[in-house]
Amino acid sequence: MKKLVIGLPKGSLQESTYALFKKAGFTIKGGSRSYFPSIDDEEIEIRILRSQEMSRYVEHGMLDAGITGLDWIAANGSDVVDLCSLVYSKQSKRPVRWVLAVPNNSDIKTVKDLEGKKIATEGVGIVERYLKENGVKAEVEFSWGATEVKVPDFVDAIVDITETGSSLRANNLKIIDTLMESYTKFFCSKDAWADEWKKQKLEKIALLLKAALDAADKVLLKLNVEEKNLEAVKGLLPALHSPTVNKLTDNGWYAIETVVDESVVREIIPELKNSGAEGIIEISLNKVVA
Amino acid sequence: MKKLVIGLPKGSLQESTYALFKKAGFTIKGGSRSYFPSIDDEEIEIRILRSQEMSRYVEHGMLDAGITGLDWIAANGSDVVDLCSLVYSKQSKRPVRWVLAVPNNSDIKTVKDLEGKKIATEGVGIVERYLKENGVKAEVEFSWGATEVKVPDFVDAIVDITETGSSLRANNLKIIDTLMESYTKFFCSKDAWADEWKKQKLEKIALLLKAALDAADKVLLKLNVEEKNLEAVKGLLPALHSPTVNKLTDNGWYAIETVVDESVVREIIPELKNSGAEGIIEISLNKVVA
Amino acid sequence: MKKLVIGLPKGSLQESTYALFKKAGFTIKGGSRSYFPSIDDEEIEIRILRSQEMSRYVEHGMLDAGITGLDWIAANGSDVVDLCSLVYSKQSKRPVRWVLAVPNNSDIKTVKDLEGKKIATEGVGIVERYLKENGVKAEVEFSWGATEVKVPDFVDAIVDITETGSSLRANNLKIIDTLMESYTKFFCSKDAWADEWKKQKLEKIALLLKAALDAADKVLLKLNVEEKNLEAVKGLLPALHSPTVNKLTDNGWYAIETVVDESVVREIIPELKNSGAEGIIEISLNKVVA
Amino acid sequence: MKKLVIGLPKGSLQESTYALFKKAGFTIKGGSRSYFPSIDDEEIEIRILRSQEMSRYVEHGMLDAGITGLDWIAANGSDVVDLCSLVYSKQSKRPVRWVLAVPNNSDIKTVKDLEGKKIATEGVGIVERYLKENGVKAEVEFSWGATEVKVPDFVDAIVDITETGSSLRANNLKIIDTLMESYTKFFCSKDAWADEWKKQKLEKIALLLKAALDAADKVLLKLNVEEKNLEAVKGLLPALHSPTVNKLTDNGWYAIETVVDESVVREIIPELKNSGAEGIIEISLNKVVA
Amino acid sequence: MKKLVIGLPKGSLQESTYALFKKAGFTIKGGSRSYFPSIDDEEIEIRILRSQEMSRYVEHGMLDAGITGLDWIAANGSDVVDLCSLVYSKQSKRPVRWVLAVPNNSDIKTVKDLEGKKIATEGVGIVERYLKENGVKAEVEFSWGATEVKVPDFVDAIVDITETGSSLRANNLKIIDTLMESYTKFFCSKDAWADEWKKQKLEKIALLLKAALDAADKVLLKLNVEEKNLEAVKGLLPALHSPTVNKLTDNGWYAIETVVDESVVREIIPELKNSGAEGIIEISLNKVVA
Amino acid sequence: MKKLVIGLPKGSLQESTYALFKKAGFTIKGGSRSYFPSIDDEEIEIRILRSQEMSRYVEHGMLDAGITGLDWIAANGSDVVDLCSLVYSKQSKRPVRWVLAVPNNSDIKTVKDLEGKKIATEGVGIVERYLKENGVKAEVEFSWGATEVKVPDFVDAIVDITETGSSLRANNLKIIDTLMESYTKFFCSKDAWADEWKKQKLEKIALLLKAALDAADKVLLKLNVEEKNLEAVKGLLPALHSPTVNKLTDNGWYAIETVVDESVVREIIPELKNSGAEGIIEISLNKVVA
C-alpha cells in the first residue's frame, strides 16, 4: 500500500495539531509522549519531530510532508513546496515575529551598530543570513533558551521570537528591527509533489485542514423574514457569500440562511432584528468549504 | 472615542460571566486575577469589582453599567436602571433567597420575636430595612462569613443567602421568613440611560446576552414528513413559535424545522416518530432571538 | 406516582453513562460517590450498583431495568429482556472479549489441555459454563484483581477481559481461545416488560439513548448545487438515507442536506467540491432518529 | 542465592507499606501500578497482591511471607505463622471491625433473628463461620462493593468493615454485633518458618519494621538539670525506660535524655520546666529498639 | 469537665495554625471546611472564625481565647489579655503593615492632605482612629476587597495591608504613611485569665506553642573536640545558651552539643572545622524550651 | 560589597539544587520561572542558566562559579576549576553516561564502523572529539531532542545521555560504546579562584553543600550498653569514624553514639540488639562534617 509520511511538531503545537486533524476527520492516537502515533487512515503514517528539524527531514525525503513554522523552514534554508498556511485560532492570527532586541539604554540603534558585537539566538541560520544581507559582521552565539535574560550581562543583543513583545518589555528590552514574520505551514517535499498519488492525497488533506480551520471562525445564521422585509434583510448580510433564500410553503415568508464570520454577528443580529427578521438562530460549524 | 464602562462581578460568577460574554460575541481576556481585563470591543471598558459594591459605583457614575445580584442592589439601596435579568443556566434558575433562620429549637417563631435580639448577616442594609418595615428593634451585626455557624453560640438569629436551604438544615437551622429573592441583573446608571449612544450600545449588549442565554436551553429540531402526516406532526410541536415548513422539490414531503425548549425534546421525539416523522435531528444553538 | 427503578453501573462506565443520559435529555445529579443520584424525571429512580451485580438485582425484581455488560449478565446466568445495545463511542465499538490466556511458553494449547489445571478469573460463572461445555474438569479460582500477573507463578491459566490484548502481551501471555464477546446492554426484567406503563417508558428511554448514541458518529452536511450538477452530487451521497433536496427561490440552485456518518466525510467533501458543490458545511448533531 | 518472596497488599495500604519499608531501611521501587516492584536487598523478592488473596498464596507456599489484615487471613481460614502486628499510625491504632448492621428500624435485634434472611458481605467466609457458630441458617450473598447501601432494598442485613461506624450511621444503619477486630499482620508460611535462613531473615525484617513503627509515636527528650533538681526531674519522666543520665564535666549539672511517647510530651514539658529543667529539646526518631 | 474554648482563624493562617498545634502536641481534625474541628484534648474545644471577628467574640466571652492578628484586635478596639506572639516562620517574621497609599502622581503627600477626601479600606475602625488622632476629617468607605485597584478611579486614597509593598507598587501606588504593624497573637479574655484553671491551661498551651515555633528556627549542633582545642571551639559558639560539654570516657576528647539559631550555622561550621572540631552534625528539633 | 555570582542550572536539577542550598543554609527565593532569584546572603548573586551553557559563561568570567554536569563542561571544552562533585541522592549515585547506540540489528559494531555515517546527538562537541580521537570521519548532526527515535529512519547512529539504558532498549537500540560518564559539578573560573576573598567564600559554600549531601545518606545511631558488652558492641560499628563513648553517671552503663551510613543500619541493628545493646535509636541528620 502506498503511504504518505507526515511529520507533526512536538511541543506547544502538538495538541492543537491533533485537534485540527480530528476536526478535519483524522483521529491520531498515541498520547503526547509517543513519537510514532497511529492515525485512522492506512495511507498515512505520522512521525513526531521538533519544529526546528522538520523541514530538514522533509527536504531530504525522510518525510513526505510536515507541519512547522515558516521561520524554521527559513532557518534551515529548506527547499520545499508550500501547501497551505494553518492559523489555528483567532487568538494566534497575529504572526510570530523574529526581532532584534537590545536593552532600553543600549547604544545599538540599527543593525549597522551590531558590527563586532555578540548576539545570542535560537535561530543562528536566520541571524547569519540577516547580517550578511546587511553587510554586518558580528558573533552569533547559539542560545539554548531564556535568550531574553542574557542581555546585557552575557551578550550585546538578541534575536528572539515574540508575539506581543510583552516578555521583551518585561526584561527592559526594546525591539529595533524585525527579521521575519512566521505562520504555521503545511508543506511537502518536491519529490512528493511530483508523485501524482501523493499530490492528490496531500491536496485532499490540505482541503480538509482548511475546512476545519475556516469553520472555527464562522457560524451559520438562520432567520425568517416576510416578503416586504426581504431586500432590507438581505442587504445587511455580508456580500461575500450570497445567502440561501427559500420561499416557505404556506405563508408568504422566506427562510434565509448564510455562513458569516463570527466576528460580525454581534453587529448584524441587532440590525437584522430591527429590519424585521424573526427566529434568528446561530449554529456552530465543524467544516466550511466555500 | 466614546466608551462604555461596565463592571463585572469578581468571584463565583466571574467565569460564567466571561463565558456568557464569549457566547454573546465578546471575548474578555486577562485571567481571573486581573481587575482590568481587556475586551475585543474598543467601545467597551471592563472593570472587575465585588458584587457587593457594584451598584454603589454604578449609581455614583464611576461605572456606566454593571452585573450583580438584585440583592446587593437592594442592600445598597441603589437607584439604577434595570436592563435585563441574566439567569446563567437551568441549574440556577431557582433564585437565591435571603432568609431569616434560627435554631430548630429556638423560641423565635416570627420576625416579631426578634425584638431585642442579636442578628448576624452579610447584608446589614437588607436586614435593617426589613426590621424597620416590621416595626422591630434588634441588634444587627455584620458577619464576615460562615454566618450559619454563629447561631446559637454567638447570636440569636441570622439572615443568610440560600438556594436550596441544605446548608442551613445541615447546621440544624430552620427558615422562618424570606426577606427577598434575587436574580442576577444587568443594569445601568440613570446618566448612561439618558445618553443616547450609551443607551443604544447597552440595548445591543442586552439583546446579545439574552440571545446567548436563551440558546442554552433551546435546540433546533429538524424532521421530514409526508403530506398526509403533516398536520399531526405540526400539532405535536409547541405552539409558541410556529415552525418553518418547506415543501421539498421532488417527492411530496415536507421539511420542518423549529426551535424548541430542550426540556420538551424527550417528550416529543417519541411522539413525532410515532406520527410518521422521519430523519429527526437535534442541533445545539449559540444564540436565539425569537 | 408510578416509578421506574433503573440501575446504572458504578465505575469506569459511570461518567459516560451520565453523559449519555444527559445527551438523551435526562440530567442525573449527585456526584460520582452517590449511590442514589437524582434525575430530573419524577417517573424514574436511579440506583448505582456494581456492573457484576446488576443483572441479578434486575432479574429478582429489585430493579426494573439496568445497564451493564452482556458478559456479567451471562456470568450471572440472568433471565432478562434485552432493550438495546449501547456502544458509547467509536473508540469502544470494538467489543470487550473474555479470553483464555496462558504464558507464551506454556504447554497448554487448547481448552482440552486445561484438564486438572488451576485457572484464575473474575468471572467464575463464565468459566465454569465454558469448561462444562467442553467437557473439561479444572479448578476455577476467583481472582480479586490483577489476574494477568498470576500466571505462571500462582495458576496455570487465566480467563480475563481484554479489548486489544495489549495488557496480556505485555505480561508475556498468549490468547488461546475466546469465551465470549460483550457489549454494554440496556435491559429490563420480565415483570417490567409485562407492565404496559413500564414497557412504554422503557421504549421511550431506549429510543432517546439510541438517538443520542447515533448522533455521536453522524453529522449534518449542507451544500448548494446548480441544477446541471445536481445528479452528480446526489450520486456521491451515501444511499442509505435519501437527502433532503430543495429548489431555492430565486436562482436555479438547489439546497441539499443530509445526515452522513462522520467517517465518510473526509472522503466525500473533496469529491463534492470537484463535482460543483458550493457552500459545503458540516454541523454536529445531538440526536438522530432515522 | 537464597530468596525470600514477600507479598505486599495492593491498594490503600500499599503506599504506607512502602513508606514503612523505607523507614525500616528497604527501598522499594516500581510505582503503584507495578506488580513486581524491585527492592534494594538481593535476598528479597516482592510481589503485589490483593489483601483478600494474600494468605491463600502464603499458605500454599507461592509466597514465603505476606502483609495483610488479620480479617482476610481469617476469611480464608489460612494456617500461617504470625510474625508481628503492624499498626501504621496513631490514627489507625483503632482496629477495623467486621460488624453486623441492619437498618435503624429493622426487627432484627440479634444474630438469632437472621434465620432465613439474606445477608450481603465482602467476607463470605467470615460470615458463614459466624452463622455456624451461632447455629443460624441464612443466605449469604457476595457483595462486590458499596455493601452499606444494599439494605433494606436488596438484602436484610450486611456484614461490613468499619473503623468509626460513621459510614454506617450515614446510611441509617445500626451495628448489632461485632464479628471480629482486625489489625495488619506480617506473617509467613509454616515452611518458611521451618527454614532456618528464612526464619532469621524474617525475624530481622520484623525487628526493623517494628523499630520504624515504634519510632513514629516516640520522641527523644533532652534536657539539663542541676543536681538539686535531679531527682524531681527524674520523677516526672515515664518509668518505662530509665533515662540516660550523665554528669557534665564542668559545672555540677546533669544531662538527661530519654525516649518518651509523643503523646505525653505536652503534659511533662511544662512540669519539667517548673521543676528546674533547662534546655529542653524534643527530637524526632527514625527507629526505636527498646 | 472544664472546657477551654479557643477560636482559630479561618483562611490563609488556618493550615499553618493546625500545623503549629500539631508540632506543639495537639492534633486538630476536621478538614479546612469544618467550623467545629475536634482536638485530641478533652479540655479544649475549637471554633473556627474569621480573623476579623475573633477578638470581638473573645472580649464578649463567647470564646475564652483566640488567635488572630494584632491589627484586627485593634480594629475592633477589643480589651483582651495578650498571651504571646506567634511568628509562624522565618519568611513571615517581617510584620504585616497597614499603610496609607496614594497614586504615584497624587497631590496627597501627608495625612493632612486627606481632609475632605474619600478613603477605601477593609479596616474602617483602624482608619477612623488614625484620622481622629491626626485631626483630619475624611470619608472612610468599607472595601469588600481588591482595595488597591480602586485608586484613583473610585477613591482618593486607600489604607491596605501589605508585607513587602510589591502589590501596591505594581498598581502604581506609593506608601505615604504606616498606621500600624501587626503580628499574630494568642490572647484570651479577662474572665478566662481570672479563672485559675483556665489561666494555667492557657499558660501551658502558650509554652508549647512557643516551644514549637522556636524549634523551627533552631538546630542542635553536636561535635567532638580535643582538650587543646576546647576553649577555641567554645569561643565560636553563640554565648546565649552555654553548650553542654561532656568529657568522653576513653580518649581525652570532649563532646559538645548546643542549640543554635539555624541562621548562624553556615557561618560557624566552617570556623568550627578550622578550629579542630570533628564529627560535626546538625539535627532538627521539634520543640525548644530554653 | 564584594559579590560572588553563581550560575544554577535550569530544569530538572533546579528544584533539587534549591533544596540542597536550603539544607546547606541558604534560602533561594523566586520561583522556578525566575532567572534572577534572590538568596539570603548579600555576598552571593544567583543566575539561572541552561546546563549546556553554564561552563561557557563561567570560563569567560560572566559568572564566578556554576553548577552543571561534567558532560556539558566537556562538551564546551571549558577550562575551569573543579570545587566538588554533587551527588544529589542515593538514587542518582549512578552516573549518567553518554553512549553510542545503534539499532539492535545494525551492522555497526564499533566506533570504526561509523566512517562515513550520519550521527545525531545533543552533544556535538563531545562526539566530534570522540571521533577525532578514534580517527573516524562521520557526519555529526545536532539533534533538538528525542534523539533515540531517529535511528534508523533519519540517522545511522546516535550519541545520547542515559542512566539505566531502559529508554534505549525500549526503542530497540543497543549500546556499543560509552563516551563518558558524568556527575554534577560545582566549579569556578580561574579568576575567581585567584581572588582570595572569592576562593574562601567558595570553599565555605562547597563545605556546606557537601555537609548537606553527606547527611542525606547518614544517620545518628545512639544506644546504651553495659560494660561487659561494650567491646562486642563497638566491634559491630563501622570502623571509619570512631564512636563517641561516654560512661554514664550512675549505673555502670555506657552511652554510645555514632554516625553511620543509612545503608548499613538494617544490618547492624539486629546484631547490636543480639550483642546486648539497649535503647537503640536512629536520628536523621541535616549536615555532617566528618
UniProtKB/TrEMBL annotation, chains A, B, C, D, E, F:
Its cofactor is Mg(2+). Residues 50-209 form the ATP phosphoribosyltransferase catalytic domain. Its EC number is 2.4.2.17. Feedback inhibited by histidine. The keyword ATP-binding applies. It is an enzyme of class 2 (transferase). Keywords: Amino-acid biosynthesis, ATP-binding, Cytoplasm, Glycosyltransferase, Histidine biosynthesis, Magnesium, Metal-binding, Nucleotide-binding, Transferase. Residues 215-287 form the Histidine biosynthesis HisG C-terminal domain. It comes from the Bacteria. Pathway: Amino-acid biosynthesis; L-histidine biosynthesis; L-histidine from 5-phospho-alpha-D-ribose 1-diphosphate: step 1/9. It is found in: Cytoplasm. GO terms for molecular function: ATP phosphoribosyltransferase activity. Signal peptide: none annotated. It catalyses: 1-(5-phospho-beta-D-ribosyl)-ATP + diphosphate = 5-phospho-alpha-D-ribose 1-diphosphate + ATP. Catalyzes the condensation of ATP and 5-phosphoribose 1-diphosphate to form N'-(5'-phosphoribosyl)-ATP (PR-ATP). Has a crucial role in the pathway because the rate of histidine biosynthesis seems to be controlled primarily by regulation of HisG enzymatic activity. Belongs to the ATP phosphoribosyltransferase family. Long subfamily. NCBIfam families: hisG, HisG_C-term. This is ATP phosphoribosyltransferase.
